[in-house]
Design goal:
This protein is α+β, with helices and mostly antiparallel strands. Among the domains are: 108 residues, Recoverin, domain 1 (Orthogonal Bundle); 171 residues, Recoverin, domain 1 (Orthogonal Bundle), CATH 1.10.238; 117 residues, 2-Layer Sandwich (DUSP-like), CATH 3.30.2230.10; 148 residues, Ubiquitin-like (UB roll) (Roll), CATH 3.10.20.90; 130 residues, Ubiquitin-like (UB roll), CATH 3.10.20. It is built from 40 helices and 42 strands. The strands form eleven sheets. It has a seven-stranded mixed sheet with strand order 17-34-42-38-39-40-41, with helices on both faces. The chain has a six-stranded mixed sheet with strand order 4-9-8-12-10-11, covered by helices on one side. The chain has a six-stranded mixed sheet with strand order 21-20-22-18-19-28. α1 packs across α5 and α15 packs across α16.
């Protein structure tokens, strides 16, 4: 071909679109059409052709381009007509194949084996449904239907039915001992759960096949010791539970002194028939109604439904479904006559237009929205267990597409209106409103609401459950919405209700905890999430609430802003009794939560607040001070806060003054930075007041810290004298209440490492910043897979961030005892297994934190000859596809990778034996009794349950055959022939399982079983464990090496210097910042450390962490009590601040902007603390 790309072939290389139908079946042609229909662009590009027609096979780009142009006949897009004519011709038409290979010799391999258009039927490709149908008494359709029910009753995370799921499926309709016993015998492998395979086999044995076999299966209920027979003690339990009189206790003992299951079956058919009858009926009811098996005939359906309804008629079930009595009569008439019943029809008991909710024009967010007609009588309906309702819908469908399901809860006597326990025929209709969007609303304008959604819920539903449901269904964020009870009617609503006066009653009165009715003057925030809706609106049939949405970019709650602007508003249901002065909520006027939290904490420092409230007139005398405006606005805000209680106010004037400084950006900001800024502004103003009071003309403000210490004291001067001099200089310039309350003193000591001379500097601080240690380590897990076939073990590791693969292997070797040269690390990268053969690779760059790492043991006499193997399963692809050779089989990898020994002397038989040794623990013995009819594996003569195939690292394509062969792996013969010469360096081996062995004998649960070493939990605990404020103080005083060389005044040269920070003196009010944010230079981002920090609420003593010389001078400890906390949630640019302030010994206020709630000490959030405000005891 001379390297040129042939654009089109000769005329003989193509067939016409009409001829295509002569070579393919209708089924094949329809499959090709469906596969092509998935592409909405009207054709396939070259990339589409590569991945969807050729399945992503590793074909060279030149060959791919040549083949694509052949299919498109030189065009850029492949149409359906060109696709099928070229594809069918190459795959099925002999003269086209011959001409194609002559003109394109690069595809000469197709002359011996052309790509298959359809997959030949082979037993090894059988689907799970076909295998399970073959070994049970169920059809493929019945197995598929059971799978749908299994999905609804199983644990979705584990894909298994747990004991809890099993009991929920039984729905309290059957004897407890029988339900638990049935779970026991369905759980064939005794792992405490039921997988789908066990369910299918169990349902078949329980409900289908000969009656003696079904009764023998039930005998396992009493086989406690699992020996396959019933002892005398087990028989006594059987007689007792079946209430068999002594005269009828005649089960034979054919196994010596024990009875076989067939002995029980024989007795149950003859003498014990009347005692086993109910048990047999219950078995059929559970298998069909609860587990999803469709009845074989209308007669069977009538029997199981009628028996269950009769059995549960006197049971008080928590939930029931309402079914039309008229439809039930029609159903009974049809099944008794042996005819198919009509679809379920509840239209005759459904409510009329007048009965429906007034919000019928909005979407319903609950699973049902149907209301019963208001004049319904007990004779119009029957109450059935929900399991019966679901079964009837599965079997017969519904005549109504919507509004046909009536699920009702049983109300306790204290909730029901007449004081008696009863079904809640008429649930609560909850109308969810939202703010009406207006073009130009004004802040003081009354809110108006429009319907948004509708929910039909029980009165037992709590406020929290309703809010959670609304957030989920309306796709609202966790902190974006809250509920308000509408007790105040706007004009539109009043007019609307006057028009609907003839419709259903609309009582939205709300009861509080003490029984009083909330008045209609103001809507009420529903923040007591544990309240049932019956407590909010006990006598109502519908309830109106509105969902308030926090503004996305500003963080403002619209309702709070409105109430603050009109000077009215209350907190909500959770804190209507908080009336202490200063207890107010502050409106978040747009990402100002950091200000609100700092203001609430600082305002709780009583001496400062009292001083500022009494200094309003004095501040007016220093209007020229640089901090005057901020200080004045802060004092005004304090006056407003202390003039009321239990209200919401807006610090709009204060925020405007802050914004005018330009110090803070409009977005997210730091609470500590704002606190420092505010205190500095107040302190500057108070310094000016002090100067005015002394009659000084010096207008100098606060002296910078670098200038407050003056010249460095002489060496002869004591540290105490240095500290006193520095403190005197500081207080001379800052003689105000802020410094007196919050200022402490720290000492910075630098030691020259050459001459050991020290130099100390004393500086004031108002906030003690304590850095939190970030996770400066890699947290990894490695699963060690040994070659002896024992279950793998998972270990946990914490490695330095600059660790290499070699260091990781050394750590694994130390804990598992295998030399690092005897195993290899591997992980999955883009669906391929990647082995780390170089120990110098960095762990951080090679392994993602979420990756699964395997340490695979190598053979003992390892000389580099080994091969990586993993299990896979090939199954006929039921999805539309083009070429069967490519996508006709779907491939699924499972299990753990293993290493197989492959030396120059290794034979195929050796390879299979090595593979079997490592996976045999996952294969059930063929003698294990299963809950099934027949198992063809019992008679399988094949020694191994799998074949080994040569594949590349994707485990999809063969490593030996050319890519154009589309080979999915050549089988390695299990013979005495040597195999090393037939394997390449890149070859992996795939375990190809036979369908029957995989589905019936492979232990899927055992595959996931991994022994978890204690190191996993230990490393996670260390990595994410909480620290303590004492540990942070201790780290604060650790020596650190200066980044730059230190110029020593003693030896007069630059050398390495070590610096130590210590606390010299503690303030009256100690503010501690837990520094959670850090700039990660390598990642070029600011990260937050979420590590919890433990700190005491009372009797905190930081004196052990003050400077040792200072402690020797003072000789006493200083203890503090916590009075306020600022808490941060989220990240730096997407976070939220709230405050906790102490009001009594064990009582705190949780202040989240306008949301104020009284909580106990145990409810205070310690884990996310950011600023701690401590008050010295006795201050």
């Amino acid at each position: 071909m001379g390297g040129q790309v042939s654009v089109v072939g000769s005329v003989n290389e193509y067939i016409s679109s009409e001829e295509v139908r002569n070579y393919v079946s209708d089924e094949e042609f329809e499959r090709l059409k469906r596969a092509f229909a998935r592409f909405k662009k009207g054709g396939l590009s070259q990339d589409d052709f590569k991945y969807h027609v050729l399945g992503g096979a590793p074909i060279p780009n030149g060959t791919l381009r040549e083949l694509f142009l052949y299919f498109t006949r030189g065009a850029d897009i492949l149409t359906f007509e060109n696709l099928v004519t070229a594809l069918v011709g190459v795959c099925k038409v002999e003269h086209v194949q011959t001409a194609f290979i002559q003109n394109h010799p690069q595809f000469i391999s197709w002359s011996s084996k052309t790509p298959l258009l359809s997959t030949p039927i082979r037993d090894s490709y059988s689907s799970f449904y076909e295998v399970m149908s073959y070994v049970t008494h169920l059809s493929i359709a019945e197995v598929r239907e059971l799978e749908k029910v299994f999905a609804t009753i199983s644990d979705r995370g584990r894909c298994r039915i747990t004991q809890k799921n099993w009991e929920e499926a039984a729905a309290g309709c059957f004897p407890e001992w029988f339900v638990k016993g049935l779970f026991f015998i369905f759980d064939d492998n005794r792992n405490g759960s039921i997988d789908f395979r066990e369910l299918v086999c169990g349902v078949s044995a329980l409900c289908r096949g000969p009656v003696p076999s079904r009764l023998s299966f039930l005998a396992k209920l009493w086989d406690v010791d699992l020996d396959g027979s019933l002892s005398q003690a087990e028989l006594e339990k059987l007689y007792e539970q079946l209430q068999v009189p002594s005269t009828s206790r005649t089960i034979a003992a054919s196994h010596g002194e024990k009875s076989a299951p067939v002995d029980f079956a024989t007795w149950a058919i003859t003498e014990g028939a009347e005692y086993v009858k109910e048990l047999s009926e219950i078995s059929l009811e559970i298998g069909h109604i609860c587990l999803g098996l469709r009845p074989e005939s209308p007669e069977v359906e009538h029997q199981i439904i009628s028996n269950l309804l009769e059995r549960t008629s006197n049971r008080l079930l928590p939930l029931s479904n309402i079914v039309s009595a008229q439809w039930h009569r029609e159903w009974k008439k049809a099944v008794l006559a042996g005819n198919p019943p009509p679809p379920v029809d509840n239209r005759d008991i459904g409510g009329t237009k007048e009965d429906r909710s007034p919000s019928s024009m909005v979407a319903c967010i609950t699973t049902e929205s149907a209301c019963l007609r208001s004049n319904i009588t007990p004779g119009d309906y029957i109450a059935v267990p929900p399991v019966v309702w679901r079964a009837l819908l599965r079997w017969h469908g519904s005549q109504q597409s919507v509004d046909g399901q009536f699920t009702r809860r049983r109300l306790p006597a204290d909730i029901a209106e007449d004081g008696t326990e009863q079904l809640e025929l008429f649930p609560l209709d909850v109308i969810l409103m939202r703010h009406e969007q207006k073009k130009a609303p004004t802040p003081r304008e009354e809110s108006s609401y429009i319907p948004w959604a509708y929910a039909q819920v029980s009165r037992m539903t709590t406020v929290g459950e309703l809010l959670k449901m609304a957030k989920l269904e309306l796709r609202l964020g966790e902190e974006e919405a809250r509920l308000w009870l509408i007790t105040k009617k706007d004009e539109k609503e009043a007019r609307r209700e006057s028009k609907d006066s003839g419709s259903r009653r609309n009582d939205t009165g709300a009861n509080s905890k003490d029984g009083r009715i909330f008045g209609p003057t103001e809507n009420l925030l529903l923040d007591e999430h544990d309240w049932p809706l019956a407590q909010v609106s006990k006598s109502a049939t519908n309830l109106k609430v509105f969902i308030e949405i926090r503004e996305k970019f500003t963080g403002i709650w619209p309702e709070e802003a409105r109430m603050a602007s009109i000077g009215s508003g209350t907190f909500g249901t959770a804190h209507t009794n908080i009336f202490q002065k200063g207890t107010v909520g502050l409106v978040n006027s747009g990402n100002t939560c950091y200000r609100n939290a700092a203001l609430q904490c600082l305002a709780h420092v009583a001496p400062l607040t009292e001083y500022l409230l009494e200094s309003t007139e004095d501040v007016e005398r220093v209007k020229h001070a640089s901090g005057y405006v901020i200080t004045q606005e802060y004092i005004k805000l304090l006056n407003e806060m202390w003039a009321t209680a239990g209200k919401i106010i807006s610090p709009s004037s204060f925020n405007s003054a802050i914004d005018e400084t330009g110090y803070f950006s409009p977005g997210q900001n730091d609470c500590q930075e704002f606190l420092g800024f505010l205190m500095d502004q107040v302190e500057t103003t108070l310094n000016q007041m002090s100067l005015v009071e002394r009659g000084s003309q010096n207008q100098q403000g606060r002296t910078p810290a670098s200038d407050q210490n003056g010249e460095e004291p002489t060496e002869e001067e004591s540290l105490s004298a240095k500290a006193s001099t520095a403190w005197a200089n500081y207080m001379e310039a800052n003689n105000n209440i802020v410094s007196k309350l919050f200022a402490g003193q720290s000492k910075s000591t630098v030691t020259c490492q050459s001459c050991k001379k020290t130099s100390s500097v004393f500086e004031p601080f108002t906030v003690l910043s304590l850095p939190i240690e970030f996770g400066e380590a890699l947290l990894l897990c490695a699963t060690v897979v040994k070659r002896d076939g024992t279950p793998p073990t998972r270990y946990g590791f914490r490695l330095p961030k600059d660790s290499h693969i070699g260091a990781f292997k050394d750590a694994i070797s130390e804990i598992c005892g295998i030399p690092s040269s005897r195993f290899i690390l591997c992980t999955e990268v883009e669906e391929r297994i990647y082995c780390f053969r170089e120990d110098t690779m960095r762990v951080a760059g090679a392994i993602k934190p979420s990756s699964t790492v395997f340490a695979l043991e190598l053979p003992e006499d390892n000389d580099g000859h080994w091969v990586l193997a993993q299990q896979r399963f090939l199954q006929v692809n039921q999805e539309p596809h083009f070429i069967a050779s490519v996508n006709g089989l779907s491939m699924k990898k499972f299990g753990l990778p293993v290493i197989l020994k492959c030396t120059e002397k290794t034979t195929g038989l050796d390879l299979y034996a090595d593979a079997w040794r490592q996976v045999s623990r996952l294969i059930r013995p063929r003698t294990t009794p299963l809950s099934r009819a027949t198992d063809p594996c019992e008679f399988s003569a094949q020694e191994f349950s799998f074949t080994l195939a040569t594949v590349d690292s994707s485990f999809r394509w063969c490593s030996k055959c050319p890519p154009l062969n589309f080979c999915m792996g050549c089988v390695v013969p299990g013979k005495d022939d040597l195999v090393l010469g037939s394997l390449t360096e890149t070859t992996c081996l795939a375990f190809d399982w036979g369908a029957t062995d995989l589905y019936l004998r492979y232990d899927l649960e055992g595959e996931l079983t991994t022994i978890e070493d204690s190191s996993v939990n230990l490393t996670w605990q260390v990595h994410y464990s909480s620290s303590s404020i004492e540990a942070l103080l201790e780290k604060y005083s650790r020596p650190e090496v200066l980044d730059c060389p230190y110029e020593c005044s003693g030896c007069h040269r630059k050398s390495e210097g070590h610096r130590v920070f210590t606390i010299w003196s503690l303030p009256r009010y100690l503010i501690v910042q837990l520094k959670r944010f850090k700039y990660l230079r390598e990642e070029r981002r600011v990260a937050k450390c979420g590590r919890p920090i433990e700190f005491p609420f009372d009797d905190f003593d930081p004196s052990p962490y003050t400077d040792p010389e200072r402690r020797s001078i003072e000789g006493k400890s200083t203890r503090y009590n916590l009075i306020a906390i600022a808490v941060h949630y989220g990240e730096l640019f997407n976070g939220h601040f709230v405050a906790f302030t102490r009001i009594e010994s064990n009582k705190w206020l949780h202040i989240n902007d306008t949301h104020v709630k009284e909580v106990s000490s145990s409810e205070v959030d310690r884990d996310h603390a950011y600023l701690l405000f401590y008050e010295r005891k006795g201050a």
